């Protein structure tokens, strides 16, 4: 290739290169030639050399050595060289380059040039790469050109003014007077630039909204002219007159009408006209309608107009273009809380979108379907969601299960339906549910005492059918351990009973314990369930003892610790096994935001403007109080003294240490009897236990409740429960209202008595369960 080839020939040669190495060789030779051309000075070939260098830059090769040549060509009096110089400046220079400051004076001179084409080159360059310093220096020139006579210059000056405002926001006031006058122009390019400039001014400085809201009638007239105008080949796009300008005007109207009744009323008729007269069969029409919908929803529009906007989005859901369906559901998701009933009319179409092949459309349809669930349609919507759960992609399964749980908790028509729904989810996608699902379901089952028989039968059937879903297996094991006696009776009115023997139940639990699919947590549930069955069955206690003893040497420390504790319960403390393994007490739970039966589908925020007495939320917790007698050391055969360590005083069953992790795992508070211990502190409510007196058989404690919130807690009551082996006496509380700001306390004395002195060492820990109402 000869050094003087033209640009077209260089492009042809580079494209014909067969390898990357050959291409690099061609470009290296050409760059060397370009450097030599630059060094030769003004030989008439500099602009052609720079044009070739710009093509090299487009291919990704270094071209920084042409920056100064751009500066020289911009200063040239010839238009052909100026054009290439400005183009090179826009491609090779930016505001971080020092060379960009060298062209400021040239741009200023060209902005005053007699030729509009030279002025346009300077305007384009400033709008593309002008730095903050350049914008400050040249802003007066741009403001002058906004009043130029040529529409061509006005259009470019307007867009350059937008760039200046973005770089230097404090210069916005300079362009505010001229922006309003540009709306009277007939040229669509100038109008488009004027609307963009006004939009930028309103977004940057909210104080200008008052001034430009006076221009709403002008914008409405311009928009009406575009909607009703006849066919114009210059501006027509797929049957829509200048959709780009229409979209820009609608966006500006949305900003001007936001939270302003006067401006909103002035544009209501226009928006209704655009919404009814625009053809949505083409993409251009859909774009205009979409912006119209967004404007209607963002201003203070009439209710009928908002319903019309929702119906337009509903039509978009039927469009074959997935992009249009996606943006339609995105918009419906934003307005479903404010226009719930209007969106509900398109529920069927939204649910059908769950069957779409595109994952992003499925995700949007899922989010919108969950938002449409209410107390009225909970059964029908949950049926569709459960069907979707069984066929949805793995990446959506967790979100679907979580949404079903939340909807069922808020709108469940009955506890049985609630339990059946959660069990269905666990059966279908048990491995994709959240960690708190298991304790939440257990809490739900404990509160539904009339459904214990039905639940344990259903869970037993699910357990023997499939043990792969770990969450389901954990709940099933827990229920079998708690209500195994109901399963053995075989009497259940809600479901066809199954005749189950003790061996069948133990076989199922052993299968879970031995399965390679069972996690350590699941095995812990199964082992505890097996142990609890020892007090609910009569003929297989020896088998249970054998199963438990096997895991006393398990490699899993958690499972081993449980087995060792249970073995100790069998051997040393068998007389108290029935009391220790009795059924768990019922635990009530009120979920914040539980709106069962609320058809609005929205969680209402509390009114904090006026202080009101608040009801204490029910919650349940356990406190283990340590009864102990200092143990007398046994005579030792050696001279080494026998001592009692702190671990001996804190063990649960004869020398077994309870770690803090184990305490947390059982969701209880273990309190060694000390003068004062804080056992609950949440949401401003604090509860402390103070030990007043302790003997070998008795403990006297005082419960102290305080309130640090801004409102009084009223109707405060405290209930307590202990095992049958311990006697409980609760004195009358000091009151039932806890003053706000910690200005007062409610106290109550509790007496615990252990009359069985002979078995005192076995009662080093006594469970004291409290329920606050």
TrEMBL record:
Secretion signal, residue range per the UniProt entry: none
InterPro entries tied to this protein = Adaptor_Complx_Large_Subunit, AP1_complex_gsu, ARM-like, ARM-type_fold, Clathrin/coatomer_adapt-like_N, Clathrin_a/b/g-adaptin_app_Ig, Clathrin_app_Ig-like_sf, GAE_dom
Which organism is the protein's source?
Answer: Cyprinus carpio
Residue segments, region Disordered: 587-610
State the protein's name: AP-1 complex subunit gamma
Q: Can you say where in the cell this protein is located?
A: Cytoplasmic vesicle membrane; Endomembrane system; Golgi apparatus
Bias (Basic and acidic residues) ranges: 601-610
Q: Which Pfam families match?
A: Adaptin_N (PF01602), Alpha_adaptinC2 (PF02883)
- State the taxonomy lineage: Eukaryota, Metazoa, Chordata, Craniata, Vertebrata
Kindly give the membrane topology term recorded for this protein: Peripheral membrane protein
Spell out the family assignment given in the record's similarity comment: Belongs to the adaptor complexes large subunit family.
The GAE domain sits at 672-773
Q: Which UniProt keywords are given for this protein, alphabetically ordered?
A: Cytoplasmic vesicle, Golgi apparatus, Membrane, Protein transport, Transport
Q: Which SMART domains would you find in this protein's record?
A: Alpha_adaptinC2
One GO CC term on file: AP-1 adaptor complex
Q: Which GO terms describe its biological process?
A: intracellular protein transport; vesicle-mediated transport
């Amino acid at each position: 290739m000869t050094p003087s080839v033209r640009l077209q020939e260089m492009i042809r040669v580079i494209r014909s290169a067969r390898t990357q190495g050959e291409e690099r060789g061609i470009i290296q030779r050409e760059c060397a030639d370009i450097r030599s051309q630059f060094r030769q000075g003004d030989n008439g070939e500099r602009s052609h050399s720079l044009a070739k260098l710009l093509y090299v830059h487009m291919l990704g090769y270094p071209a920084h050595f042409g920056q100064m040549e751009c500066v020289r060509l911009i200063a040239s009096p010839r238009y052909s060289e100026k054009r290439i110089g400005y183009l090179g400046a826009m491609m090779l220079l930016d505001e971080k380059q020092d060379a960009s400051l060298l062209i400021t004076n040239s741009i200023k001179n060209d902005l005053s040039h007699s030729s509009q084409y030279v002025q346009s080159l300077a305007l384009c360059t400033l709008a593309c790469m002008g730095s903050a310093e350049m914008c400050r220096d040249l802003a007066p020139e741009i403001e002058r050109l906004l009043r130029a006579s040529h529409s061509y210059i006005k259009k470019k000056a307007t867009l350059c003014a937008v760039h200046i405002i973005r770089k230097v926001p404090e210069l916005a006031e300079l362009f505010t007077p001229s922006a309003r006058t540009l709306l009277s122009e007939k040229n669509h390019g100038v109008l488009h630039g004027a609307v963009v400039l006004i939009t930028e001014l309103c977004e940057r400085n909210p104080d200008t909204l008052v001034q430009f809201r006076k221009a709403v009638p002008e914008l409405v007239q311009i928009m009406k002219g575009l909607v009703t105008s006849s066919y114009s080949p210059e501006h027509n796009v797929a049957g829509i007159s200048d959709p780009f300008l229409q979209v820009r005007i609608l966006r500006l109207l949305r900003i001007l009408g936001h939270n302003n009744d006067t401006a909103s009323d002035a544009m209501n008729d226009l928006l209704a006209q655009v919404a009814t007269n625009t053809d949505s069969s083409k993409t251009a029409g859909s774009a205009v309608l979409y912006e119209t919908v967004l404007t209607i929803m963002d201003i203070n529009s009439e209710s009928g107009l908002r319903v019309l906007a929702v119906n337009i989005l509903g039509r978009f859901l039927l469009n074959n273009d997935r992009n249009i369906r996606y943006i339609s559901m995105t918009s419906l998701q934003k307005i479903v809380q404010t226009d719930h009933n209007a969106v509900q009319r398109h529920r069927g179409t939204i649910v059908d979108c769950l069957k779409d092949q595109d994952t992003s459309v499925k995700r949007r349809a899922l989010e919108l379907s969950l938002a449409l669930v209410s107390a009225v349609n909970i059964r029908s919507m949950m049926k569709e969601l459960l069907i979707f759960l069984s066929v949805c992609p793995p990446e959506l399964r967790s979100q679907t299960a979580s949404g079903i749980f939340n909807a069922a908790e808020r709108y469940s028509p009955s506890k049985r339906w609630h339990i059946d729904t959660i069990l269905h989810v666990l059966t279908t996608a048990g491995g994709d549910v959240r960690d708190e699902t298991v304790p939440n379901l257990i809490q739900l089952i404990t509160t539904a005492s009339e459904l214990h028989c039905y639940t344990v039968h259903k869970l037993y059937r699910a357990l023997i059918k499939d043990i792969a879903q770990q969450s389901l297996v954990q709940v099933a094991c827990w229920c079998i351990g708690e209500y195994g006696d109901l399963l053995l009776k075989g009497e259940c009115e809600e479901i066809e009973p199954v005749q189950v023997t003790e061996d069948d139940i133990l076989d199922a639990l052993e299968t879970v314990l031995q399965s390679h699919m069972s996690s350590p947590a699941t095995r812990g549930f199964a082992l505890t369930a097996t142990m609890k069955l020892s007090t609910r069955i009569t003929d297989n206690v020896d088998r249970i003892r054998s199963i438990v003893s096997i895991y006393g040497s398990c490699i899993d420390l958690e499972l081993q610790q449980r087995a060792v504790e249970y073995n100790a319960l069998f051997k040393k403390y068998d007389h108290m096994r029935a009391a220790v393994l009795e059924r768990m007490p019922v635990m009530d739970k009120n979920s914040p935001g539980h709106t069962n039966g609320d058809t609005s589908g929205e969680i209402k925020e509390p009114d904090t403007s006026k202080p009101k007495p608040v009801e204490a939320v029910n919650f349940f917790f356990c406190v283990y109080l340590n009864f102990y007698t200092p143990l007398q050391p046994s005579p030792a055969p050696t001279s080494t003294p026998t001592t009692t360590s702190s671990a001996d005083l804190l063990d649960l069953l004869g020398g077994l240490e309870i770690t803090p992790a184990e305490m947390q795992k059982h969701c209880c508070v273990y309190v060694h009897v000390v003068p004062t211990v804080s056992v609950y502190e949440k949401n401003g409510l604090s509860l402390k236990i103070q030990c007043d007196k302790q003997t070998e058989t008795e403990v006297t404690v005082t419960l102290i409740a305080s309130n640090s919130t801004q409102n009084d807690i009223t109707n405060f009551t405290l209930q307590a429960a202990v095992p049958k082996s311990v006697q409980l006496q609760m004195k009358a509380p000091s009151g039932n209202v806890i003053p706000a700001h910690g200005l007062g306390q409610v106290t109550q004395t509790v007496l615990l008595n252990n009359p069985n002195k002979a078995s005192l060492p076995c009662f080093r820990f006594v469970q004291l369960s409290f329920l606050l109402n």
